[in-house]
Amino acid sequence: MEMLHQPGEIIAERYCIIGTLGQGxxxxxxxxxxxxxxxxxxxxxxxxxxxxxxxxxxxxxxEAKILAQLNHPRIPQYIDYFQIDTESDRAFYxxxxxxxxxSLAVLVDNSWKPDESEVKRLAIQVLEILVYLHSLTPSVIxxxxxxxxxxxxxxxQIFLVDFGAVQxxxxxxxxxxxxxxxxxxxxxxxxxxxxxxxxxDLYGLGTxxxxxxxxxxxxxxxxxxxxxxxRSHVRISQxxxxxxxxxxxxxxxxxxPGCNEALAVLRGEQxxxxxxxxxxxxxxxxxxxxxxxxxxxVIEIPPIWLTTPHSRLFxxxxxxxxxxxxxxxxxxxxxxxxxxxxxxxxxxxxGSIGISIIGIFLFSAAFRTRIEINQQHFQLxxxxxxxxxxxxxxxxxxxxxxxxxxxxxxMNKQPITVCLLRIKLFKHRFGTFLMQSEKEWLMGEISHFxxxxxx
Length: 455
Fold this sequence. Notes:
Blueprint lengths: L9 E2 L3 E10 L2 E8 L4 E9 L6 H14 L10 E8 L4 E8 L4 E2 H6 L6 H20 L4 E2 L8 E3 L5 E3 L6 E2 H6 L23 H17 L8 E2 L2 E2 L9 H10 L11 H8 L22 E4 L3 E6 L7 H27 L5 H26 E8 L2 E8 L2 E9 L3 E13 L2 E10 L2 E5 L5 H19 L1
Antiparallel strand pairs: 1-2, 2-3, 3-4, 4-6, 5-6, 7-9, 8-11, 9-10, 12-13, 14-15, 15-16, 16-17, 17-18, 19-20, 20-21
Helix pairs in contact: 3-5, 3-7, 8-9
């Protein structure tokens, strides 16, 4: 691309060109000095007569508009947007603070080889920036996360630059924007269709991490079933590999639903198993009713009674306990034994426990559960016979954990589990007597629905 300005040239009587920082499809970025404030800036320039289509100017103006709204310590601060007319051309400019440090691409070219811990620290910082961008109203999608656009200073601080491909979700959902932007190798598959969602930036970060670990472009890595096959080519921990694989899933629904979830797993605050990559099939002959629409998921679990192996196994506990108690009473009566106070107390306690076990079993086997979830609200209700004894209401976003939790017992050498939903500090369990396939199916459906709604 032809240079617009040379070192020493003064732009708008304020910015003195020092050199070139980089150039791309929609402009050239110069290093310049703001001679009024005596500070260095990044000055991005776009010439009208060098444009091949008006869409380029639209992207440039959108970048300026969104940058003016951003306020984050790791995003260079917006300074100015202006244009200059000459006899033969019109040029547009965006001025920003100059971010310290060098791009990850330059660092790798200079033989920088970060280890796993350093890459994790870097990823956490980028995710924190993306959390900020995605939490704006409307959410801002960078769409061009790559090594050239991430800067690292000498202290290890990370900065995100070049918002030339930026898109807000209003633009994406209302006008149906279809411009293909991004960089080959770091673009999520949906970007080739002109689409972008919040997890699009996660894909770019995941491929950037692959570049750091393997010192080569993700475009040069082998693929299997449209997915980058990296595990056999890099030495990292199993947990980090699982997390990274989730980041670069080619199917949107199989990635983390958002940056908060990816960040929580990377920090060890949540387990990656909370995010099921695929839905389990509906078990045959299940008595569970599940109704799902784009906006709502309703699950009805009727009383189990003795319809499953787990419920029949648990039914043996009160039978054995109370059978032994009745046998003990018969022996005492048949032997005409006189009991001491401690003996009588033992029988009372033993019998009370037996009655409690019967109550717990009948209560668990007879209750009905209803779960209703939409994009905003979650509700769990339980009935014992016709009496509603529990009702939980919360914000869907407050659900922080969805998993099967072992209860310490086994059946056919397999652990018996219970469905668990964590809502902030509270854990809600259900489905102990369901078949394992039913529990896996339910947890997969709930996780998939929440992930799909959030994404």
